[in-house]
Design brief:
By secondary structure, the protein is α+β, with helices and mostly antiparallel strands. Helix content is 21%, strand content 31%.
Length: 97
């Protein structure tokens, strides 16, 4: 399983009373492997299906270590490192207006 550097830092030194949004990618597109129930048990939520076996999850930082123990996870990254849409304030690229 791949863990981004920020996820590894949170796992090793979580901040109490802080939550984190993560992108969790499963090896198989099978949420029945326990993602929903595990996240719920950890006082978190599965907020969005991002397609391609990836899900946006929010949970307390103190629960990240336990989430990493779930079988079937391919990778976990912080949601901040991945863009989910187009920035409406972005400037147009030459020819795109």
């Amino acid at each position: 399983m791949y863990l981004s550097h920020p996820v590894r830092r949170i796992r090793e030194d979580p901040v109490a009373d802080e939550s984190v949004s993560l992108v969790v990618e499963l090896r198989d597109d099978d949420r029945d492997d326990g993602l929903d129930s595990t996240v719920e048990e950890l006082d978190g939520s599965v907020d969005r299906d991002l397609d391609f076996s990836a899900y946006l999850v929010t949970l307390p930082e103190t629960a990240v270590d336990e989430l990493c123990d779930l079988d079937g996870i391919e990778r976990i990254e912080t949601a901040d490192t991945i863009s989910f849409g187009v920035d409406p304030d972005a400037t147009a690229v030459d020819g795109d207006e």
